[in-house]
Amino acid sequence: MSEPDGINIAEEVARLTDKADKQLRITYAKLTPWQKTLVARHPERPRALEYIHQLIEDFTPLAGDRAFADDAAVVGGLGRFRGQSIVVLGTEKGGDTDTRVKHNFGSAKPEGYRKARRLMELAGRFRLPLLTFVDTSGAFPGIDAEARGQAEAIARSIEACLEASVPIVATIIGEGGSGGAIALATGNRVLMLEHAIYSVISPEGCASILWRDAAQAAQAAEALKLTAADLKALHLVDEVVAEPLGGAHRDPTAAVRAVGDAMEAQLSPLLGLGPEVLKAQRRDKFLAMGREGVA
């Protein structure tokens, strides 16, 4: 279709789209660590439950820690991933005001980590691989959580990961904050989305401690080496999953599919390994982290 002045509308739209995509590609290739942090926190980025509902068939949620309560910040249950029966866990932030309040913005309390441990032990009992989706700024730091044994619950969840007799594939889909993330990410394989972040503390928290000024978050983000590229170079994650141009929020379906493909590729070779081999692999993997000259 052409306008009277000779301009072909379809060709012009394609030209402008290509130009915009090229500019977007250039922009995203130059993102600073702080800018990556903002992308990782984008409100429209797909959340754990979106990955679960799109990738896991016949998902049956399981709730409660059998001790105190159910924590909606940690979601999980049984299902099938591309024909393979599995147990799945995730930290869920929520996508709007109501769901964010319900899920406590993805910051789990002790009962959340105890629920996670219960499902990990369930996976081992029935020889089901465990898949996890991590998106949390960190464990809930409130007084009530501390009173109920927050640190102990996180440590026990990490221990359950290390002692699991089944394959564990963990994926950092947004933020991976401190022990609250490691509690669900101590896996045989750890994947990370291209614009996700993973660190011992948030940039704001780091800046508040080092400079007593949260406004220095951008400088802290640079120092923390929290980007996927940094963590891959440091051998702290096994694979970086490419996101759609402009971030996962621009095409959530494609992002979820890419994560599913990467998880399947990482899980398949683990399925034939015995329990002791899987445990030894995880142990050696995490003991090697931070050691100079150890890949």
If you had to describe this structure to a student in words, what would you say it looks like?
The chain is an alpha/beta fold and 295 residues long. The chain is 47% helix and 17% strand. The chain is built from 13 helices and 8 strands. Strands 1, 2, 3, 4, 5, 6, 7 and 8 form an 8-stranded mixed β-sheet that branches. Strand 5 (168-177), helix 8 (178-185) and strand 6 (189-193) form a beta-alpha-beta unit. Helix 5 packs parallel to helix 7 (150-163). It is globular. It starts with 8 loop residues before the first helix and ends in a 7-residue tail after the last helix. The relative contact order is 0.14. The mean pLDDT is 91.
Keywords:
295 residues
Topology summary:
Layout: H1 9-29, H2 33-40, H3 48-55, E1 56-61, E2 74-81, E3 84-91, H4 97-102, H5 110-125, E4 130-136, H6 143-147, H7 150-163, E5 168-177, H8 178-185, E6 189-193, E7 197-199, H9 203-210, H10 217-224, H11 228-233, E8 239-241, H12 252-267, H13 275-288
Parallel strand pairs: 3-4, 4-5, 5-6, 5-7, 6-8
Antiparallel strand pairs: 1-2, 2-3
Can you describe this structure in just a few lines?
The protein has helices at residues 9-29, 33-40, 48-55, 97-102, 110-125, 143-147, 150-163, 178-185, 203-210, 217-224, 228-233, 252-267, 275-288; strands at residues 56-61, 74-81, 84-91, 130-136, 168-177, 189-193, 197-199, 239-241. It has 295 residues and is of the alpha/beta class.
